[in-house]
Design goal:
Elements (H helix, E strand, L loop, with lengths): L27 H5 L5 H10 L25 H4 L9 E3 L11 E3 L21 H10 L7 H7 L6 H12 L23 H11 L19 E2 L12 E2 L2 E2 L6 E2 L21 H12 L5 H11 L3
Antiparallel strand pairs: 1-2, 3-6, 4-5
Helix pairs in contact: 2-6, 4-6, 7-9, 8-9
Length: 298
């Protein structure tokens, strides 16, 4: 769904506050005035303001034909969700060994203690500052200086951006109780079976803990290099081990395909089959179908 709806922890009674439109630097004040505080409004303005970036800037070293004013946080995290774009992880060298990262949703950041798929940043403030200072320039501070890096002020600008990000809620999940478990009065038999697989044989709930917004605030290494030869080259990219990756939330998972940190899995069915193979859970077809039905309720 695009533009994605926006839900606020501060105004759950309002539902989607996006008016079915994409927030931009031109319309954000009109849409949000009277709903968010002045501090949050300033944070939102900064999140919508373009700043120079490695590929989008005013120098000759860019990936677009014309000089660019840069990119804004919410260019990729459209309406605090995702535009489905991919980029290369900035913290790996050499260039050919950098791997793809999916643009993740910013929904529910208030419940997350790890930010960034691998760098294990511990606060929204850390991540906001990291993105502007280094990730925007692929971890190259020399290039950043040359192209006009924005160095946001931590006590003011970064704090205001974080305050806005921290009030973005997950989409409603009416079949879940306050502890993240299915309400048997509203869930179907297939969905209840899927929850049983999720918490039991499928082993999903060992990391995606329902009471913790389907996360465990940890990082895990699936050791996927068991399934390929390290050093193989595909499309000029070298396959290396992924290493530990954070446990992403499953809340609202139906709204953000493709799946896994690098988008290699196109559907929830693909994702269930992937983990069935990687974890060796030996789910049968009915269990996999039930698990997908359950994931659609989250």
């Amino acid at each position: 769904e695009f533009p994605p709806p926006i839900f606020l922890t501060t105004h759950p009674e309002l539902g989607d506050v996006s008016r079915g439109d994409l927030l931009t630097i031109r319309n954000f004040y009109e849409y949000m005035n009277g709903i968010i505080t002045p501090v949050q409004m300033e944070g939102l303005r900064l999140l919508l303001t373009p700043f120079p970036q490695e590929e989008f800037n005013q120098t000759e070293d860019r990936k677009v034909a014309m000089q660019s004013t840069g990119v804004a946080c919410l260019d990729c995290h459209s309406n605090f969700h995702t535009n489905g774009a991919f980029h290369l992880t900035p913290d790996v060298r050499p260039q050919a060994e950098r791997f793809r990262l999916d643009t993740t949703s910013l929904r529910g950041l208030f419940n997350q203690q790890i930010h960034g798929s691998k760098r294990s940043l511990r606060s929204v403030e850390d991540f906001t500052e990291f993105e502007q200072r280094t990730a925007y320039f692929n971890g190259d501070h020399v290039s950043a200086t040359r192209k006009g890096v924005n160095l946001p002020d931590r006590p003011n600008q970064v704090a205001m951006m974080a305050q806005m990000q921290n009030i973005i809620d997950f989409p409603p999940a009416p079949k879940l109780d306050p502890f993240g478990r299915l309400d048997p009065a509203t869930a179907s038999a297939l969905e209840i079976k899927g929850e049983q697989v999720f918490m039991g044989k499928g082993r999903c709930g060992e990391c995606h803990v329902p009471a913790q917004s389907f996360m465990d605030n940890n990082m895990h290494d699936l050791k996927l290099e068991r399934f390929y030869k390290v050093g193989q080259t595909f499309n000029d990219q070298v396959a290396i081990p992924d290493g530990p990756i954070k446990t992403f939330t499953l809340r609202g998972i139906k709204d953000s395909p493709p799946y896994l940190h690098d988008g290699r899995l196109m559907t929830l069915g693909d994702t269930v089959e992937f983990f069935n193979l990687v974890l060796g859970t030996k789910l049968d077809q009915s269990e996999k179908e039930a698990l997908v039905a359950y994931l659609l309720t989250l």
